[in-house]
Task: structure prediction
Amino acid sequence: MFLLNKGSLNAATFIIPQNDGEAYGIFDLLTSVGAPDIRRSQQPWGARLDLEPASTFIDLKPTVVIVEMPSPHKEEELKKLNHSVIIIDHHSYGDLDRNHSLCSLEQMAQLLGVSLTPWLQTLAINDRSYIYGLRQAGYSLETIKKVRTYDLECQGMTPTLMRLSDKAYKEKQVIGDFTVCFLPSLKSSYLVDLHVFDTSDRVEDILIFCYEGKNYLKVKFSGKPENAEQLYNHFKNRDGVIQWYGGGGPARFWGTSTVNVVEILDVLGIKYLAIKWPFVT
Result:
């Protein structure tokens, strides 16, 4: 990745999300180097460039740096308008593989030619390899909980949502090697935190069914890399399937919003009837 010097920095527009701790860290980093044109998306997780309002694309600079907002069609559109497009990402989306060994915050620092502050480095490790990576890096439990609290706040986690996760975790079902939870919310990060803190330094699998009313809207997995990869590869390149996959260190995450409950369980070797379902669709 080439470096943006002061001149090229002034000729760049940065389009970034503001939906987690890493995204806020990227904004802080760009602000610290005096980037003059930063455009922050209002979209939650799952942000896409093609879903941005038209105002986002008014008076763009010659170089457009896009962070974790995939949209190949919109990116090509910008290139046809003679913009140089730089993609910063480290996730996979269906058949669009943008995996990277560095998280987006680390890639941005590399692009700018600067070092991360100790706090931003902590945010980077958290985003790249989560609690496991922070443990491996030698951070104290107090620091790990501090960065997780900050990340959750940046994601829009509220006390009410946290109470829903507390209840879901208390009612967890252990099926073989899997912890299965049902959460009446789409925000599941705190529920995964509860599970990981509860399992000490081991990597244990958790499968979360997020629902509203009587509909399962998303299924999310966090745990052993081989299981996350198996899920991702099983549904990869299939028309109509929306999925995401990422993580680093000893664990990975996977999720989908096109829910096929039985097929997901079959991939993981979990028997449907072994689970006590809150409702059947």
User: Anything to note?
Assistant: The domain at 161-274 is CATH 3.10.310 (Diaminopimelate Epimerase; Chain A, domain 1). The chain has a mean pLDDT of 95.
